[in-house]
């Protein structure tokens, strides 16, 4: 027994040291959470977690212990994420619309524990973040069915906020109604004009009368308040859950490839580390001199530095008739020698140049 007691004393001493290190690590996790809140970054970072597991597991020389150390690290990182989620519960995140709208869903997906604040329109939400009323604002930038969200792109050009993360949100429409309603009892469907258009085939097939509403979530809220089994809304499952409505039929939109991209904007720019990684992207907006070849020269500078353009769009400048600015999304790390050199060359020939943001493709759980 004396040997067992000695071993237990050794374990107790080790646990005492581990407790001190645990506190230090959780304090460091708190600093990470504060940085993420300030920069509008997500808690979960798959690439970072994989790097930590790989690098730290290499420190373990005993092969039979490596798999257990991986389990230990995963549990530790899950604990850190839970702590960060609690710390982020005070984060104020703005969006445009009402609870249940796709902007609400995107904001909740990005910042699950945050306090969400609804604003009446994109510009108001954006200005609220600029003025400090909220810490972050989540706004749509593009829909695969309807195209660019021009108002938000204009805010990127003229405003002061930065994009530090993006999410692709699948837009799936469902027929939802109050208790007691059935597909046969429904006569009218209410929703946003775009949702009605995307579900037109289903609506006509079932001989429903369609009624336009400001947005899908407001339609659902109205259906819940009226409690009329002859009317229904077209909205998301999350919206149905939020307003205690029943899903009568799922996936009623014609196109199954309907996705909206949402960006998280914050007042502070987040630059990637200088070491390039997979899945890194950045956004530029710029104007060029109104002369032949000016745009081509700018694009040549981008290409010569090895950056692949994912998107190139032009938008009219409201203050100058028949003048345009350009919006470019690119693959790669802007915070490298090539990136810095490219920005210097572009600055010398662009009237206006802004790095709107840098972000990494992520998997959201």
Topology readout:
Layout: H1 2-39, H2 46-57, H3 63-87, E1 92-96, H4 102-110, E2 115-119, H5 122-130, E3 136-143, E4 147-148, H6 150-158, E5 162-170, E6 174-177, E7 188-191, H7 193-198, H8 200-205, E8 209-212, H9 216-226, E9 231-235, H10 237-242, E10 246-249, E11 259-266, E12 280-288, H11 294-304, E13 308-316, E14 324-331, H12 337-349, E15 350-360
Parallel strand pairs: 1-2, 1-3, 7-8, 7-9
Antiparallel strand pairs: 3-4, 3-11, 5-11, 6-9, 6-10, 12-14, 12-15, 13-14
Helix pairs in contact: 1-3, 2-3, 11-12
Question: Can you walk through the features of this model?
Answer:
With 365 residues, this protein is an alpha/beta fold. The chain is 42% helix and 26% strand. The chain contains 12 helices and 15 strands. It has helices spanning 2-39, 46-57, 63-87, 102-110, 122-130, 150-158, 193-198, 200-205, 216-226, 237-242, 294-304, 337-349; strands at residues 92-96, 115-119, 136-143, 147-148, 162-170, 174-177, 188-191, 209-212, 231-235, 246-249, 259-266, 280-288, 308-316, 324-331, 350-360. Helix 1 (2-39) crosses helix 3 (63-87). It is flat and about 85 Å long. The model has no long low-confidence stretch (mean pLDDT 88).
Structure, briefly:
This protein is of the alpha/beta class. The chain has helices at residues 2-39, 46-57, 63-87, 102-110, 122-130, 150-158, 193-198, 200-205, 216-226, 237-242, 294-304, 337-349, and strands at 92-96, 115-119, 136-143, 147-148, 162-170, 174-177, 188-191, 209-212, 231-235, 246-249, 259-266, 280-288, 308-316, 324-331, 350-360. The model has no long low-confidence stretch (mean pLDDT 88).
């Amino acid at each position: 027994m004396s040997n067992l007691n000695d071993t237990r004393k050794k374990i107790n001493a080790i646990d005492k040291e581990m407790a001190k290190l645990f506190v230090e690590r959780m304090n460091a996790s708190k600093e990470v959470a504060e940085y993420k809140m300030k920069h509008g970054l997500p808690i979960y970072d798959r690439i970072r977690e994989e790097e930590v597991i790989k690098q730290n597991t290499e420190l373990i020389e005993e092969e039979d212990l490596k798999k257990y150390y991986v389990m230990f690290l995963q549990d530790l990182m899950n604990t850190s994420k839970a702590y960060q989620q609690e710390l982020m519960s005070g984060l104020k995140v703005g969006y445009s619309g009402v609870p249940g709208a796709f902007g609400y869903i995107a904001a909740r997906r990005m910042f699950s524990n945050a306090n969400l604040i609804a604003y009446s329109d994109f510009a108001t939400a954006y200005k609220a973040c600029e003025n400090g009323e909220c810490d972050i604002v989540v706004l749509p930038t593009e829909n695969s069915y309807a195209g660019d969200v021009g108002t938000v792109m204009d805010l990127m050009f003229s405003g002061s906020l930065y994009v530090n993360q993006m999410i692709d949100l699948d837009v799936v429409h469902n027929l939802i109604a109050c208790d007691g309603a059935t597909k046969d009892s429904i006569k009218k469907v209410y929703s946003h004009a775009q949702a009605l258009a995307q579900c037109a085939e289903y609506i006509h097939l079932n001989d429903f009368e369609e009624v336009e509403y400001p947005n899908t979530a407001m339609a659902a809220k109205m259906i819940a308040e009226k409690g009329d089994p002859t009317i229904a809304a077209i909205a998301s499952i999350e919206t149905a859950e939020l307003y205690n409505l029943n899903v009568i039929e799922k996936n009623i939109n014609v196109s199954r490839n309907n996705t909206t991209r949402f960006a998280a904007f914050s007042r502070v720019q987040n630059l990637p580390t200088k070491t390039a990684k997979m899945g890194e992207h950045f956004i530029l907006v710029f104007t060029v001199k109104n002369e032949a070849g000016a745009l081509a020269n700018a694009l040549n500078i981008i290409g010569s530095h090895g950056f692949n353009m994912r998107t190139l769009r032009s938008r009219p400048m409201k203050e100058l008739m028949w003048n345009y600015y350009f919006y470019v999304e690119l693959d790669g790390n802007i915070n490298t020698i090539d990136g810095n050199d490219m920005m210097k060359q572009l600055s010398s020939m662009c009237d206006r140049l802004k790095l709107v943001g840098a972000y990494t493709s992520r998997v959201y759980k």
